[in-house]
Amino acid sequence: MSTYTVAHSPDADDVFMFYAIKFGWVSSKYIRFENIALDIETLNEKALQNYYDITAISFALYPYIKNDYALLKTAVSFGKGYGPKLIKKRDKRLKKNFKVALSGQYTTNAMLFRIAYPNARFVYMNFLEIEKAVVEGRVDAGVLIHESILNFDESLEVEKEIWDIWIELAKKELPLPLGGMALRRSIPLLKAIESENMLIKAVQVANKHKDAISKMLIERNLVRIDDEKLKIYLNMYANEDSSLMNEEHYEALDRLFEIGFEHGFYDTPIKAKEYLIPSEYKNVRFC
């Protein structure tokens, strides 16, 4: 049996999707996973170092690690009419060069924000600290992600939805690509396929037993929000679309990578489907 590290963020949708494996509801004769939870920008930076076997990433990071990691088809988060939010103090007028807190250099929301606001001054910090930094006036604004988009201090208001920036740049109403999973290319192909299939099954099982797993997560203090907000958040980011990417998802990813290339973030545009694990190999190999 091979043991692989699976790194994911501590936000509710990642925890929810992985814990079907952690609770023993999904397993394999050939593979065992050891998980670790870290904030998304730390995971992005670790992926650049080829650190973990399987890792959650911001989709905007992927072109930088495409030679070391394959893109997985499962455990994905896309926004549909929603996503990260640029917030500021109520009635505050932002100058052209306003100071903003972002959750990390390689996050999808950071890339889209930097394209939309090229004159802003960026400060990167842990996403859990952003709301407080805006409230205390250490920054003029901040981009909230994960569960923090559901509820924030009443002294704050939304200046701009990242969803709106995405639609303006994409020039088409596509799902907003936020985060996914990547698997180290050095893992033997059959075990890579088995690993991806385990994760697909875990997401499917988690969605099928959403109420039961949600209750277990809350009872074990594994999420930062209450039952009501957890339901809302999981319906947004851990749903039936999370288990397998569809054609619209691939189109959205390709457009994201195209936008990044057009604005100088990437050396070349890439097509998402060309970087997936060739899961059909298993059927050909044993036919």
Would you mind describing this structure in some detail?
- The protein has 287 residues and is α/β, with parallel strands linked by helices.
- It has two domains: 2-78 and 177-285, 3-Layer(aba) Sandwich (D-Maltodextrin-Binding Protein, domain 2), CATH 3.40.190; 85-170, D-Maltodextrin-Binding Protein, domain 2.
- The protein has helices spanning 12-22, 40-48, 62-65, 108-116, 130-135, 162-170, 189-208, 210-219, 227-237, 240-243, 247-262, 280-285, and strands at 2-8, 31-37, 54-58, 69-71, 77-79, 85-89, 99-102, 121-124, 141-144, 156-161, 176-184.
- Strands 1, 2, 3, 4, 5 and 11 form a six-stranded mixed sheet that branches. Strands 8-7-9-6-10 form a five-stranded mixed sheet.
- α1 crosses α7.
- The two termini are 24 Å apart.
- The mean pLDDT is 89.
**Count of separate DSSP helical elements:** 12
**How many DSSP E strands?**
11
Class based on secondary structure composition and strand pairing:
alpha/beta
Give the integer mean of the pLDDT values: 89
Strand content: 15-25%
What is the fold named in CATH at topology level of the largest domain? D-Maltodextrin-Binding Protein, domain 2
CATH class of the largest domain: Alpha Beta
N/C terminus separation: 24 Å
CATH architecture classification of the largest domain: 3-Layer(aba) Sandwich
Show unreliable segments: none
Q: Which word captures the global form?
A: globular
The CATH fourth-level homologous superfamily of the largest domain: Periplasmic binding protein-like II
Question: How helical, in percent, are the residues?
Answer: 40-55%
Number of domains: 2
Query: How would a textbook summarize the main sheet?
Result: 6 strands, mixed
Structural Rg? 19 Å
SSE pattern: EHEHEHEEEEHEHEEHEHHHHHH
